[in-house]
Design a protein that fits this description.
By secondary structure, the protein is of the alpha+beta class. The protein folds into six domains: about 15-85 and about 225-270, Nucleotidyltransferase, domain 5, CATH 3.30.420; about 85-225, no CATH class; about 270-335 and about 430-490, 2-Layer Sandwich (Nucleotidyltransferase, domain 5); about 340-425, no CATH class; about 495-595, Dna Ligase, domain 1, CATH 3.30.1490; about 615-675, no CATH class. Helix content is about 30%, strand content about 30%. The protein is globular and about 80 Å long. Pfam families: Hydant_A_C, Hydant_A_N, Hydantoinase_A.
Length: about 675
C-alpha cells in the first residue's frame, strides 16, 4: 500500500529539495509549522551531491536528526536538462510500415511562420535507428493487417547491432487497440534488443500519432538517466537513515514515488517549476484570491501560470524544446527573461535584453565569476535596488565593476549610466508584461482583475514595476520567495493521471463512459498500490469538426455535459455554438492521495512601526531617491510601509515603488498595492 505522504508525529520534519541551475533550495517545515530555508550551490554533473549536502546542512542548522524526517520531496531538473542538452539515451523506434518519418514530418504548427532562420529541433530518434514492420490497426481498433511476428524477429538482430539504450514501439492507431504494440514489446524484450523496450501506449494512450510517439520518445530518451539518478539518490537517503519515502515532484503539480518516476520519466520534465505553481495555488486559496498570476523569475527564464479559484490552469498538450509532450501538466508559459538575461544592441542600435543568458557560470558581472556581459541583475545593482551583498552577507557583489561596465555601454548609446541601467529594466519589464498578458488577456481574463504572485530569486525585484505597468490589483510576495518552489512542494499531493480514448456524442450518449472510468480506477489501484484515493473524473470534449479539445469535469447527464462544454468554450474562446454537435474523445481520471493544505504560520498581534535598518540612494523614474532599507524578518504583522522602500531577506530583495504601499499580513505575506490618491 502506498504510504500516506502526510503521516505526522510530534517531532516531524518535512523537507523539500528543489534543484535549480545555480542553487539547490532546501525548505524545512518544523513541528510547530514554522519554515526554515537553506541554499547550496547546485552540482550539475551530480545533482544528488547538492541535494544530500543541502539536506544535511539544513538539518544541522536546525539541530535536526535524519530520523525525524517524515516527509521528503524532491524537484529535479534531470529530465529537463537531458532533453535540452541532448545528452540522453540512444533510442530506437519500431513503427508501422510507411510511418517511419512521423517524428521528422511532425505537424503543421509554425510558431515563426515568416522567419526563414528558424529550424525545428532535430528528433530524438535518428533515422538510422528506426525500423518498420508490417501490421495495421484501423482508427476504430479493428485489425486490418496482423502483426508479422516473423518479420519482427528478423529485425531484432538489426536492432541489437545498433547498441540501443532503449526502444519505443509505436504503431499507427495503437491508441484504439494496443494489442500489436504489447505483443511486439513482448517479443523484442525476449530477443534482448535493448535494456528498455516500451510501448508508446504505456506512456500516452491518446490519439494523434506524432504527439503520442514524441511523448514516448522523450520518455525513452530521459529514462536511463532519470532512473540512474533516482537509484543513487534513494541509496544515499537510505545511508543517511532518513525513514521517509522519497517523493518526486512531477509536471502536473503532484508527487510520484521514484519507481514510477523512473518508468514514466517524462512526467518529471517540469518537476521543479510545478512546485512553485503548486505553492502559489495553495497561497491563493489561503488568501482567498480569485485570479492570480504565478510569476517565478530565476536566472535564465521566467515561468508564468494562471491560477483561477486557487487551482492552476492545466494542459495535456505541452512541449519541450518544441517537441510535443502529451501528458497532463501545469500550463506554464516560459519566456527567456531572468536575472542573468544579457543586455545587447541589435543591428539597428536598439537596446535588447535576452533571451540569451549569462547563466550560472560565469553569471552576471556582479557575481565575480568572470562574467563580462551586462545582465538584468547588474542593472539592479547599478540602480541601487541591490546593495553590496546577497544571501545574508555570504555573497559579495562587485558594484564597482558593474558601474564601470554600465558607463561604458551607456557611452556607446549616448546615454548616461543610470539611463542605461533603467533602460535595461524597462525592456525586460515589457518582455515580462507580454508573458503575463499571454496567460491572462489571451485566455479571456482581464489582467487588471489579477494579483501577481511574485517569487523566485528575482520575482520580488520586478513585481512592483510589472503591477504598475499592467494595472494589476496587487503584488503578493510569499514569506520565502527565493525558495518558493521548494516550499510549494511540501504540501503537494500524490497524484497519478490516467486516460483512455472513447467516442461519445448525442447519438451514443454517455452509456459506455462509466465502464471506462471503472477500468481507469482499476489501473489506478494497480499503479498506486491502493484503492484509497480520491478520483476526479474529466472528459476531453469538442465541437464536431474541431481539431482541439477542452478538458472539463465529467457529468453523468449528456445535456448537462453539453451545457458545461458550451460554457467552457465561451470562457476560453469568447463564443459558444448552440447549433454545433459535441463529441467526447477522451476520458480522464486524476487519482489523488492526501491533498490537505498545511496551515500557514500565524504571527499574532502587531508591533511598533518598522524602523529602517539603513538608507541607500536608488534611481527611480529618472531621479535618485533616498530610500529606506528594511529587514523583512523584523516586520511586525499587520504593519504597513510606504514606498519607496527596499526589503532585504536571505533569499531575495523586494522593491516597492514610490506610488505603492507594502503591507505585511499576519501570516508574513507582503501585499504591494497602489497608493490611494
Amino acid at each position: 500500500m502506498t504510504p500516506d505522504p502526510h503521516t505526522e508525529s510530534g517531532s516531524d520534519l518535512h523537507i523539500a529539495a528543489d534543484t535549480g541551475g545555480t542553487f539547490t533550495d532546501i525548505g524545512i517545515r518544523l513541528p510547530g509549522g514554522g519554515l526554515a530555508v537553506w541554499k547550496v550551490a547546485s552540482t550539475p554533473d551530480a545533482p544528488d551531491d547538492a541535494v544530500i549536502e543541502g539536506v544535511t546542512e539544513a538539518l544541522r542548522r536546525q539541530d535536526g536528526d535524519p530520523a525525524d524526517v517524515t516527509r521528503l520531496v524532491h524537484g529535479t531538473t534531470v529530465a529537463t536538462n537531458t532533453v535540452l542538452t541532448r545528452d540522453g539515451a540512444r533510442v530506437g523506434l519500431v513503427t508501422t510500415r510507411g510511418f517511419r518519418d512521423v517524428l521528422a514530418i511532425a505537424h503543421q504548427a509554425r510558431p515563426s511562420l515568416y522567419d526563414n532562420t528558424v529550424h525545428r529541433a532535430q528528433p530524438l530518434i535518428g533515422d538510422d535507428a528506426i525500423v518498420e514492420v508490417d501490421e495495421r490497426v484501423g482508427s476504430g481498433g479493428d485489425v486490418i493487417a496482423a502483426l508479422d511476428e516473423g518479420q519482427l524477429k528478423q529485425v531484432a538482430e538489426e536492432l541489437r547491432a545498433l547498441g540501443l539504450d532503449s526502444l519505443v514501439v509505436s504503431f499507427i492507431n495503437a491508441y484504439s487497440n494496443d494489442e500489436h504494440e504489447r505483443r511486439a514489446v513482448e517479443i523484442l524484450r525476449r530477443e534482448n534488443v535493448a535494456p528498455i523496450v516500451v510501448a508508446a501506449t504505456s506512456i500516452s494512450a491518446e490519439m494523434r500519432e506524432y504527439d503520442r510517439t514524441s511523448t514516448a520518445a522523450i520518455n525513452a530518451y530521459v529514462q536511463p538517466k532519470v532512473a540512474g539518478y533516482m537509484g543513487r539518490l534513494e541509496e544515499r537517503i537510505e545511508q543517511m537513515q532518513i525513514p521517509s519515502q522519497l517523493w518526486i515532484m512531477q509536471s502536473n503539480g503532484g508527487l510520484l514515488n521514484p519507481v514510477t518516476a523512473s518508468e514514466h520519466s517524462a512526467r518529471t520534465v517540469l518537476s521543479g517549476l510545478a512546485g512553485g505553481v503548486a505553492g502559489a495555488s495553495r497561497w491563493a486559496r489561503h488568501l482567498e484570491l480569485d485570479n492570480v498570476v504565478s510569476f517565478d523569475i530565476g536566472g535564465t527564464s521566467t515561468d508564468i501560470a494562471l491560477i483561477r479559484g486557487g487551482e492552476p490552469d492545466e494542459t495535456t498538450t505541452g512541449e519541450i524544446d518544441s517537441m510535443p509532450l502529451r501528458l497532463p501538466s501545469i500550463d506554464l508559459h516560459t519566456i527567456g527573461a531572468g536575472g542573468g538575461s544579457i543586455a545587447w544592441r541589435d543591428s539597428g542600435g536598439s537596446l535588447r535584453v535576452g533571451p540569451h543568458s549569462a547563466g550560472a557560470d560565469p553569471g552576471p558581472i556582479a557575481y565575480r565569476r568572470g562574467g563580462t556581459e551586462l545582465t538584468v541583475t547588474d542593472a539592479h545593482v547599478a540602480l541601487g535596488r541591490l546593495g553590496t551583498e546577497l544571501l545574508g552577507g555570504e555573497f559579495t557583489l562587485d558594484v564597482e565593476t558593474v558601474n564601470r561596465q554600465i558607463a561604458s555601454r551607456g557611452e556607446e548609446m549616448g546615454l548616461d549610466p543610470q539611463e542605461t541601467a533603467e533602460g535595461i529594466i524597462k525592456v525586460i519589464t515589457a518582455t515580462m508584461a507580454r508573458g503575463i498578458r499571454k496567460v491572462s488577456v489571451e485566455r479571456g481574463i482581464d489582467v487588471r482583475s489579477c494579483h501577481l504572485m511574485a517569487f523566485g530569486g528575482a520575482g520580488p525585484l520586478h513585481g512592483a514595476d510589472l503591477a504598475h505597468e499592467l494595472g494589476m490589483r496587487s503584488v503578493v510576495i510569499p514569506p520565502h520567495p527565493g525558495i518558493a518552489s521548494a516550499v510549494g512542494m511540501l504540501d503537494a499531493p500524490v497524484r497519478h493521471d490516467f486516460a483512455a480514448p472513447v467516442h461519445a456524442d448525442a447519438g451514443t450518449g454517455l452509456g459506455d463512459l462509466p465502464a471506462e472510468y471503472r477500468r481507469l480506477e482499476q489501473r489506478a489501484e494497480e499503479e498506486m498500490g491502493t484503492a484509497d484515493f480520491e478520483g476526479e473524473y474529466l472528459v476531453d470534449a469538442r465541437y464536431v469538426g474541431q481539431s482541439y479539445e477542452l478538458t472539463i469535469p465529467f457529468l453523468d447527464d449528456f445535456d448537462a455535459q453539453l451545457e458545461s462544454f458550451h460554457a467552457a468554450h465561451e470562457r476560453r474562446y469568447g463564443f459558444r455554438d448552440e447549433d454545433a454537435a459535441m463529441e467526447i474523445i477522451v476520458v480522464r481520471l486524476i487519482a489523488v492521495i492526501g491533498h490537505d493544505d498545511a496551515p500557514q504560520e500565524l504571527h499574532e498581534g502587531s508591533g511598533p512601526e518598522p524602523e529602517p535598518t539603513g538608507r541607500r540612494d536608488v534611481y527611480v523614474d529618472g531621479r535618485w531617491l533616498d530610500v529606506p532599507l528594511y529587514d523583512r524578518a523584523a516586520l511586525p504583522p499587520n504593519s504597513t510601509i510606504a514606498g519607496p522602500a527596499i526589503l532585504n531577506q536571505f533569499d531575495t530583495t523586494t522593491y516597492v515603488r514610490p506610488d505603492q504601499d507594502c503591507r505585511c499580513d499576519a501570516h508574513g505575506f507582503l501585499h504591494l498595492t497602489p497608493r490611494k490618491k
